[in-house]
Amino acid sequence: MFEAVAPGYDRMNRILSLGLDQGWRRQTLAALDLPARARMLDLCCGTGDLALLTPETLRTVGCDFTPAMLGIARAKGRAAGRPLPLLAGDAMRLPLRSGVFDAVVVGFGVRNLPDLHVAGREIRRVLAPGGQLGVLEFSRPRGAAARMGHRLFLRFAVPALARLSWSGTEAYGYLSDSILEFPAPETLRDHLVACGFDSVRWRALSLGAVAVHTARNPGKPKAVGVAAHHGSGM
Q: What is the model's pTM?
């Protein structure tokens, strides 16, 4: 499915988020407040939008399950004059050594993972002690009126807008269903705690349509960038 929608993915993201999605990504990165030279993994990086928003002082690696998405991310990085290190990998079993990153971010990818506990443990494994996690994910507004409007938008507006795209409606039907079925932010917080993270916090954005979670891998932080190494040996 993601292979099929990759060419139109960025365009539809802008349309379906009403142009807010890049701002949400920036707020996620700002919530981590990482020092220069920190090594960051953008997991489920898709077409590279979040990775390309990271400051160039950070050493960012993108990882995604879908080769077509990675191909677009690679082309966007070249066009921006900022080639990104990218690798294909499954979040359930990351092809990375333990403790290699100072931070992991996941933008709109956690919802697509088959097992949050397995993925959470893998993320903790590749984080250095004291490393940070940032998760940006769709949510549902709290107020009754906003919640109803949000549901109607997902059920009717999203498929209608998807019909304007060559990619059709299947993927965006999945998008609507996955958002409506995804656990509430409090439940995701509990999942992260159960995976061993501490300092878990979350903040609602855009009336609760999305939420930013931050968490920390317990342990004493090492000097930034010491633990990680780029290249095929990761």
A: 0.89
